[in-house]
């Protein structure tokens, strides 16, 4: 599955701006793994290192963590963090989720946060998840809900897309492609998983102001390609349109953008 995604290598140094907002998702996934001493853990689509780094910090030498991401830039950023913190029992490699370079049944636990819907072939990636997990192992992965439930990107896309040239768009539909009812479940079953559960969770992004949200959008460069296609006037118009759409989400002097995400977890 392809779409107008950002260049993950180019934005690797900026992606951490979003980490405080999605940190609760990583924590929830780790809880679902039911980690035990001597478990070997694989984090697929680790980005700049999470939630693999959290596992390594919490469990130290009790577990062995391998984290992979297709983007070399993301892997380099993640590895640098582990080296700065002198973390042990964690390693990083660059590889696509659809072609995991590990033998069958290599891992006791597998985790993936907001990666599945962005893969070129999510179904093949899930088949690889099933292959590298040992029988009796556990997995936990998170995907975003439906488009209407991802408020931050939805309102931005609603304002931005009418101003883009024909053939251009935003990643909204791909980012939320696994969110509609039954889609994630069907993909997991096709890969061979049974006995899993899918749960829905709320996640709010809280900002002091709309300006703080828009600054994050621009500074993180997740929509840099789309924004660069606009001239200064149209870019200002889009910003004003997003602000108008965000007006109903102002609470107690701040901006609170609600989201829904799904967690799938269970045995191999």
Q: What is the CATH T-level topology? A: Rossmann fold
Q: Structural class of the secondary elements?
A: alpha/beta
Oligomeric state of this protein: single chain
> So, CATH architecture?
3-Layer(aba) Sandwich
Distance between the termini: 25 Å
Number of domains: 1
**CATH-level-4 superfamily name:** Vaccinia Virus protein VP39
Main beta sheet, described?
8 strands, mixed
- Order of H and E elements: HEHEHEEHEHHHEHHHEE
Word description of this protein:
The protein has helices spanning 19-33, 52-59, 72-84, 122-132, 151-160, 172-175, 183-191, 210-220, 224-228, 232-246, and strands spanning 40-44, 64-69, 90-94, 107-113, 133-144, 197-207, 250-251, 254-267. The chain has 268 residues and is α/β, with parallel strands linked by helices. The mean pLDDT is 95. It is 38% helix and 23% strand. Strands 1, 2, 3, 4, 5, 6, 7 and 8 form an 8-stranded mixed beta sheet that branches. It has a single domain, classed as Vaccinia Virus protein VP39 (Rossmann fold), CATH 3.40.50. It is built from 10 helices and 8 strands.
Compact description:
38% of the residues lie in helices and 23% in strands.
Descriptive key words:
8 strands; 23% strand; Rossmann fold; eight-stranded mixed sheet; 268 residues; alpha/beta
Write the layout of secondary structure elements.
Blueprint: H1 19-33, E1 40-44, H2 52-59, E2 64-69, H3 72-84, E3 90-94, E4 107-113, H4 122-132, E5 133-144, H5 151-160, H6 172-175, H7 183-191, E6 197-207, H8 210-220, H9 224-228, H10 232-246, E7 250-251, E8 254-267
Parallel strand pairs: 1-2, 1-4, 2-3, 4-5
Antiparallel strand pairs: 5-8, 6-8, 7-8
């Amino acid at each position: 599955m392809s779409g107008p995604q950002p260049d993950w290598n180019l934005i690797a140094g900026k992606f951490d701006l979003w980490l405080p907002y999605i940190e609760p998702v990583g924590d929830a996934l780790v809880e679902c793994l039911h980690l035990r001493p001597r478990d070997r853990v694989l984090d697929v689509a680790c980005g700049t290192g999470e939630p693999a780094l959290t596992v390594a910090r919490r469990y130290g030498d009790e577990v062995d963590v391998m984290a992979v991401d297709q983007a070399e830039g993301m892997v380099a950023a993640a590895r640098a963090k582990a080296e700065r913190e002198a973390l042990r029992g964690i390693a990083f490699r660059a590889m696509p989720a659809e072609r995991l370079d590990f033998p069958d049944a290599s891992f006791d636990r597998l985790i993936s946060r907001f990666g599945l819907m962005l893969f070129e072939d999510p179904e093949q990636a899930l088949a690889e998840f099933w292959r590298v997990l040992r029988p009796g192992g556990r997995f936990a992965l998170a995907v975003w809900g439906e488009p209407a439930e991802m408020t931050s990107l939805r309102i931005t896309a609603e304002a931005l897309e009418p101003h883009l040239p024909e053939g251009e768009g935003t990643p909204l539909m791909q980012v939320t492609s696994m969110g509609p009812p039954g889609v994630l479940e069907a993909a997991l079953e096709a890969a061979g998983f049974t006995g899993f559960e899918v749960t829905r969770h709320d996640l709010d992004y809280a900002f002091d102001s709309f300006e703080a949200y828009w600054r994050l959008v621009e500074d993180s460069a997740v929509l840099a390609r789309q924004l660069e296609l606009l001239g200064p006037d149209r870019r200002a118009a889009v910003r004003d349109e997003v602000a108008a759409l965000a007006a109903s989400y102002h609470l107690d002097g701040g901006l609170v953008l609600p989201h829904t995400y799904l967690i799938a977890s269970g045995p191999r």
